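Attaching the record inline, Q. Sequence:
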Amino acid sequence: MNQGRHLISLIVCVLFLIFSNSPLSKAENISDSLNDSSNLIRIFKEFRVLAQAKVIQGVPDYSATSMKQQAKELKKLQEQLAAMDIQEWPISQQVDYHIVRAEMNGLEFHHRILKPWVHNPGFYGTELIPSFPWRGDGIDVFMLEFPLKREEGAELKEQLQAMPILLDQAQKNLTDPARELAIIAIRTKEKKILMFQDLIKRLKDHHPELVPYAEQALDAVEAYQDWLIQTKDEMTAPAGVGKENFNWWMKNVWLYSQTWEECYNTAMREYQRAVAFLKLEENRNKKLPPLPFLTTEEEHARLWNKAEDYITRFVEEQKIFTVPDYLSPSGPHRPWVAPSDRDGDCVEFFEQAERHDSMAQVIHNHIGHHLDGLRHKRDDRPIRSQSNLYGGLRSEAIPMFFEEGLMIAGAHDEWTLNPRSREVIYISQAWRATRAIADLKLHSNEFTMEEALTHCVDWCPRSWECKTDMDTWYDLEISMLQPGHATIYITGKNEFERLLTDRAIQLGDAFNLQQFMDGFFATGMIPISLARWEITGFYDEIIKLQR
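Structure, as predicted:
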């Protein structure tokens, strides 16, 4: 009897050893490894390295061979990601998965549709978006503090040396450029030229050894601009991605379910609402003096700082959200330009808004972008701590929402320095809606750049916009690199309002604004559709975005 039991035990052990080493068992072990959330972090890190072009002698390589290899490696990572089974993961980890999936989709879209290294002359040497894809030109003169430290001087020298090589490569890589994008690049290079001219003056005083490199960089930018001027009329590629591709980008990269048509209707409705409410405000204030206009830098800085203190105190006292102790003063977000320095140029929109009343921009930048940035720096989660390579609705949703939202909450009621400050809020909203419409029609190829600018000028209240306004030029340039960028001010705000409403209905009388806002900020700088899932548990939008 005992011998029989021993024999059975021996057979069981042998069978266990056989099956534990079988291909099926090994496959299950591999599958378990692939489905581990730590593997998601590994894939994300590998993707972030891949997303940056290879750098050769300080210059990123956007040649056809290099880009083909990048696309091939991206597909491998996407296949690894798609093979993961995340159904049993906690919602927060599934959210991280979709963040990674969306970013990979963004790089895929660059290779399939945008191909900025082939189509967009402004892709090379644009200081506005140096983070992705890295183009070897993150030089911003205004951020340099002289005299430079040794390592800063060495880095600047390398960047300046890279400029002529980068722009020479651009002319070789741009095999199918778009005329409208060349027109934008020609205009934005004007500021780049002014920046280098200013840099040369400052280097002569502090670092004369770097002057020759800055002069060579300046020559390269001027030559590149001349080349664009001479060849732009020969460029035939469409500038916009088209409605179908725009919809794919929104759904798969920004995880936003509205189509081009829905975005257009939203922008038009927001414009109409803003103008209608502006007229009501104007009628209400018709017996008051006109909006004042600041004329000195000192007065502008003083009122900006006063507005910062006021709005911070207001948010805290009204318990809109918890104000962290690390919120620091941000100060005016753009250099002061004296009227005598304009040389005939118009007063740009942001300057119009700030000099008539700074509250709208203080709200947008101080407790919007500035505080968002401070929170993000303190986020130590492996995936959410990284800034999204492609922007998205979240980046402008809260700053835009707060402009009017805090006004409705009472922020302007006691802002006695300017009783007409509410008018500036509605002017700003109308202006952003006009840019959204221009953005959308550029991508549907219904607008040329000239028509887009004319639209922005004609539809901006109070004639606070002009065709030489660099704020609009830059915004439309970003929109051509990131479809829908000028639209997200409107769509992002509306998406956030939807989330707030969903949560208010879900909780009923238990809803608390401060708790809701604090919970939203705790999700991090992630797509609002994912924040909605994490906060409410509602999965309906995520299902729609995966179809």
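Confidence is low (pLDDT under 50) at residues 14-20, 22-32, 127-137. The longest strand covers residues 55-56.

More tomorrow.
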